[in-house]
Amino acid sequence: MESILKAVGLKKYYGSGETRVRALDGVDLEIEQGTFTAVIGTSGSGKSTLLNMLGGLDVPTEGSVQIAGTKLGNLSREQATVFRRKQIGFVFQNYNLIPVLTVWENIVFPLSLDRQKPDREFVENVVKLLGLKDKLDSLPGQLSGGQQQRAAIARALASKPAIVLADEPTGNLDSKTSDDVVGLLKRTSREFHQTIVMITHNPEIAQMADRIVRIEDGRIVDNCVSYKSRL
């Protein structure tokens, strides 16, 4: 299977000398297209830093990230911004929905920034899968936490990105809703052949993914662990 994402020798250091913090200390990672990968680790292990590097939200001290054949380090700031909008879908713990826009408007908002029309049939299929068909005219404040997170997932998928990066997407949800949301992420990965990388500190949530990568002290300590046989 083809790799959609390659990270080589990623390092992220803060400070210098004895006070230097090695948030990432030489990470190599490949993600295959259409897979659902969970990255786990304790607080301060470097998993969120890794996600920021993979998504081009921060610049590594050393190393490179390549997504769909494009090296992020070769892009100007403006090019990187456009690339993220088109090729990387983000799902954050705090949803980041715009409160004055309806659910539908939130979902297609990133596309409107590039003056692109949504693939309405595709987006409607995503909305149906995520159980939001009857909520499209609602404002985010009228939704439950789980519904807001589903809207954020739909927004991340709407542009058909090369990869979706989810940072603790269940952090503000109860256990049942968390299971539902991760189950929906898994289904979107399968049904739309969408590549998803999810950061989580919860091993039980992580086991719903196809693959688990464990990071500690800025280094990958366990990789290529597959749970497909259990599902």
What does this protein structure show overall?
By secondary structure, the chain is α/β, with parallel strands linked by helices. It has one domain (3-230): Rossmann fold (3-Layer(aba) Sandwich), CATH 3.40.50. 32% of the residues lie in helices and 29% in strands. A hairpin with a 2-residue loop joins strand 9 (211-216) and strand 10. The protein starts with a strand and ends in a 5-residue tail after the last strand.
What is the residue-averaged pLDDT?
91
CATH 2nd-level architecture: 3-Layer(aba) Sandwich
Multimerization state: single chain
- Give the number of DSSP strands: 10
Enumerate the spans where pLDDT stays under 50 for 5 or more consecutive residues. 227-231
User: H/E element string?
Assistant: EEEHEEHEHHHEHEHEE
Examine the coordinates and then state which fold CATH places here, giving the name of the CATH topology.
Rossmann fold
- Please state the overall shape, judged from the principal axes of the Cα atoms: globular
The top level CATH class name: Alpha Beta
Query: Helical region count?
Result: 7
Compact summary:
The strands form two sheets. A six-stranded mixed sheet has the order 6-7-8-3-9-10, with helices on both faces. It has a four-stranded antiparallel sheet with strand order 2-1-4-5, covered by helices on one side. A hairpin with a 6-residue loop joins strand 1 and strand 2.
Keywords:
231 residues, alpha/beta, four-stranded antiparallel beta sheet, 7 helices, 32% helix, disordered C terminus
Summarize the helices and strands and which ones pair or pack.
Elements (H helix, E strand, L loop, with lengths): L2 E12 L6 E12 L3 E5 L6 H8 L7 E6 L2 E2 L5 H11 E5 L10 H11 L6 H10 L15 H14 L4 E5 L7 H17 L4 E5 L2 H4 L4 E6 L2 E8 L5
Parallel strand pairs: 3-8, 3-9, 6-7, 7-8
Antiparallel strand pairs: 1-2, 1-4, 4-5, 9-10
Helix pairs in contact: 3-5, 4-5, 5-6
